[in-house]
Design goal:
Elements (H helix, E strand, L loop, with lengths): L3 E5 L20 H7 L4 H11 L7 H6 L7 E4 L41 E10 H6 L7 H22 L19 H4 L7 E2 L2 E2 L8 E4 L7 H4 L2 H15 L8 E5 L1 H17 L10 H5 L5 E3 L2 E5 L14 E7 L3 E6 L5 E6 L9 E14 L6 E6 L5
Parallel strand pairs: 2-11, 6-14, 7-9
Antiparallel strand pairs: 1-3, 3-13, 4-5, 7-10, 8-9, 10-14, 11-13, 12-13
């Protein structure tokens, strides 16, 4: 039997698929710690979602109380605020882009009841277990660890986006537009969160940066910084935006920005000391600062869809308007090894990890992405 990593989901009217109340089962600490401690971006999410103390160890992490930032526990629903059913302009949506009429398309779990269930399953033939009883390797423990690592990879892809893995089919994050390259997109023609992106109040910012500048003073890419500043300031002019960002970049995008930080450091006479965010330093997360906000890079970051292949990008995530909703009764549930049944043709032990979750945005407008940045030659 082939091991699998798949997404399932549901697309149905909210009128006849009302969600039942959820329980508060304890989620598997080992798996949650692995998921939120594996990659730079997920470490940053965990730091914002659970606090500095939670990042000390798995024990601290398991006992942490959510801060209310990014990580939320609910029934997997979008928390869109404002008069989304209004037929006339509303002051909430008044900002630099002016006044407009919101439009929400009812029905479909893309809005209120969107979720993904990520399942990772592994099998061991019973003969392998029997043959290994006198061995030095605990084959069950080895298989469990391999399944956990593959699951962590899949979870990271589900948030950051991936071109092919895991299997997105018709129900995965890309299919319902909830991974990062869709939530903060360049293409503004899709319905995300059941609100058409033709509505200006539901469009995120995006700015093509086709030249980074550089040259003198040890190659300072000042055009990159000025363009990023313009993109951010455009978002800060909006009513629902606060100056509270987390930036995540491709490796090349982060290295280009590092050139600027290094040149500023030397020119400012700081003797090799980068300016850091105290909270991120305490959690051991490598980062730079852009306009006072932390920037991390993650090997899983992909450029927004429709962008030029081989270029770099930097996403600006407005923390109060970005969330990962974890359905409370299926938070990283681990099914321990189920023994073979007598009527099984091929007798195997089976184990699985399941999580039901939804990445989403409360409002798209505060977020932005700088894209088509020239590929880093470093």
């Amino acid at each position: 039997m082939a091991e699998s990593n798949t997404f399932t989901g549901t697309i149905a009217s909210v009128r006849d698929t009302y969600q039942k109340l959820t329980s508060l089962d304890r989620w598997a600490i080992g798996v949650q710690w692995a998921c939120f401690n594996k990659s730079p971006f997920m470490k940053a999410v965990a730091l914002e979602g659970f606090g500095v103390d939670a990042m000390k160890s798995a024990d601290f992490f398991g006992a942490a109380t959510p801060t209310g930032r990014i990580i939320v526990y609910d029934s997997g629903k979008y928390g869109i605020r404002g008069a989304v059913f209004a037929t006339a302009p509303n002051p909430y949506f008044v900002g630099r882009l002016g006044t407009f009429t919101p439009e929400l398309i009812e029905g479909g779990d893309e809005f209120a009841y969107s979720w993904h269930r990520l399942v990772e399953t592994t099998f061991i033939p019973d003969v392998d277990v029997d043959d290994n009883r006198a061995g030095l390797i605990d084959i069950k423990a080895q298989k469990m660890e391999g399944m956990k690592q593959k699951y962590v990879e899949g979870f990271n892809y589900a948030i950051l986006g991936h071109s092919s893995a895991p299997d997105y089919s018709t129900m995965g994050p890309r299919a319902v537009y909830s991974d990062l390259p869709n939530l903060i997109s360049v293409t503004q023609t899709r319905t995300v969160g059941a609100i058409p992106t033709t509505n200006s109040f539901w469009q995120n910012g995006h700015k093509a940066i086709t030249s980074i500048g550089g040259g003198g003073e040890m190659d300072r890419p000042l055009v990159l910084r000025r363009s990023m500043m313009k993109a951010k300031n455009d978002r800060l002019a909006l009513a629902e935006t606060t100056d509270d960002y987390l930036f995540v970049a491709t490796q090349g995008g982060h290295q280009l920005y590092d050139r600027l930080m290094y040149a500023d450091m030397i020119r400012g006479g700081r003797g090799g000391a980068f300016v850091r965010n105290a909270k991120y330093d305490s959690a051991g997360i490598k980062h730079h600062l852009f306009d006072g906000d932390p920037m991390v890079w993650d090997g899983g970051v992909t450029v927004p869809y429709t962008c030029t292949a081989g270029t770099e990008c930097i996403y600006g995530i407005n923390i109060p308007n970005f969330f990962i909703s974890l359905r409370t009764e299926e938070n990283f549930k681990v099914s321990e090894w189920e023994p073979p049944r007598e009527h099984d043709v091929q007798k195997t032990y089976v184990s699985s990890i399941k999580t039901r979750f939804t990445p989403g945005v409360i409002s798209r407008r505060p977020h932005f992405v700088c894209y088509n940045i020239p590929a880093c030659a470093d």
